[in-house]
Write a structure and sequence with these properties.
167 residues, 34% helix, 17% strand, 4 strands, 4-stranded mixed β-sheet
Length: 167
């Protein structure tokens, strides 16, 4: 290698699919331990709603729960993502670059309200999203009781854009 050459390592690009999938698997396990006989499934609309709120909470440090910086609730975000059914949400904010699936489920498991949401057999759909920055990780799971609406493409809409609405 010539003198003065600079070697750069590839940039880190976090892929949280494994964490997100572990949340789904752990919720499935909790539901079956609670006696549920249904299989919770990932819904892209709920994943989009979770993504919007995750990014909002990650970048707006004053937020610490279910209400978005624009005043939206989990029901608003799910509806804006095209989901027509009743929804609930769990949110984790960890003051570190990462969180393990075990740490996350332990946080949620020991909160009675979140435990009730995760073990509710009528929650048949789920969307999970997580994002990290150097000093903060946010994970949001949105749970749904069923959606009768057709699928909508989730990769072409920005935060808060309502399906069918054009500027």
């Amino acid at each position: 290698m010539p003198a003065g050459a600079v070697v750069t390592a590839p940039g880190a690009n976090a892929d949280n699919r494994r964490l997100n999938n572990s949340v789904v698997a752990n919720v499935y396990t909790m539901q079956h331990k609670a006696g549920c006989d249904t299989d919770i499934k990932v819904n892209p609309k709920l994943r989009l709603a979770a993504q919007w709120h995750t990014n909002d909470v990650l970048h707006n440090r004053a937020l610490n729960g279910d209400i978005g910086s624009d005043g939206t609730t989990v029901a608003d975000r799910a509806r804006n993502a095209g989901y027509a059914g009743a929804v609930a949400e769990t949110v984790a904010i960890n003051p570190a670059l990462a969180i393990s699936g075990i740490e996350l489920i332990n946080q949620w498991f020991h909160r009675p309200d979140y435990h009730a949401i995760m073990s509710d057999c009528s929650n048949v759909d789920i969307g999970v999203w997580s994002e990290s920055m150097l000093d903060r990780t946010v994970v949001v799971a949105v749970y749904g009781k069923g959606d009768g609406e057709p699928p909508v493409p989730s990769n072409i809409r920005d935060f808060g854009q309502v399906p069918g609405w054009t500027p």
